[in-house]
Design brief:
Elements: H1 10-15, H2 18-21, H3 31-36, H4 61-74, H5 89-97, H6 128-147, H7 156-167, H8 178-194, H9 206-211, H10 238-243
Helix pairs in contact: 4-5, 4-7, 5-8, 6-7, 6-8, 7-8
């Protein structure tokens, strides 16, 4: 990441990308899926539980701690509100990894696997679930080797430094380039923070509230042409619409 991407003002950097991520569907239909698969991906089909009560479906306890710490540094809590950890982004990612998308059901999985151009996207043999498992383990191992502690137990500044090294491909994750993992993690974090809460992230709609996104109000189309009028209704999710 660039020097500013882990600065306290990083939340504003993320908001510059809101036009492409706010209110998006889960990984299965968004940026990370496009980068990781040559075919259509499938989202987790079940309604996600409250992250506070989340039963991990794919990740084990240590992996969950590492992931929560990592997403918490990519979008940290600050004076503007909760960050990715508080918004349940790790639970969102876990649900996606436990889905058909995470299993690579729609991936072309036969070789040969060779290094492609940036325009060709993801070219590795790993499914998304395998890639995240390897990447999370690699990040934690790098923390233990360099700092003598698990990634989740490091000071925020040391976590930031390791994430920066991962982004620039400086960490050794074996057959998985650390930069590829970082890119997928960054995409997944933004998607979980701004997705509909029904998919497990954006708890209490904190991402939508942060940027003023109205959600899925059925009558929102009637208000698009009402200029210079403040939107005062709270954001609504798919679940809210189903209950109304």
């Amino acid at each position: 990441m660039e020097e500013t991407s882990l600065h306290p003002s990083r939340r504003r950097i993320f908001l510059k990308q809101v036009a492409t991520v706010a209110g998006m569907v889960p990984l299965a239909g968004a940026t990370a899926a496009t980068a990781l698969a040559s075919g259509d991906a499938i989202a987790a089909e079940s309604t996600a539980p409250d992250p506070a009560e989340h039963a991990w479906r794919y990740l084990n306890g240590d992996e969950a701690l590492t992931l929560e710490a990592a997403v918490g540094r990519l979008i940290p809590a600050d004076e503007n509100g909760p960050g990715a950890k508080e918004a349940g982004v790790a639970a969102f990612i876990d649900l996606q990894l436990a889905s058909a998308w995470g299993n690579g059901d729609h991936f072309y999985s036969r070789g040969p696997f060779v290094q492609g151009t940036p325009q060709q996207g993801y070219q590795l043999a790993f499914t998304p679930a395998q890639m995240f498992r390897i990447g999370i383990a690699g990040l934690d191992q790098a923390a233990r080797q360099a700092k003598g502690a698990a990634f989740a137990d490091l000071e925020p500044e040391r976590q930031d430094a390791l994430l920066a090294d991962a982004e620039h491909g400086k960490l050794d994750f074996g057959a998985l380039p650390s930069g590829v993992f970082f890119g997928a993690l960054l995409d997944a974090t933004m998607e979980g923070f701004f997705s509909d809460p029904i998919h497990g992230g954006n708890r209490d709609k904190v991402g939508w509230k942060l940027v003023g996104f109205p959600g899925v109000h059925a009558s929102y189309a009637n208000d698009i042409e009402r200029h210079n009028v403040a939107w005062t209704r709270p954001p609504a999710s798919i679940a809210d619409a189903a209950e109304s």
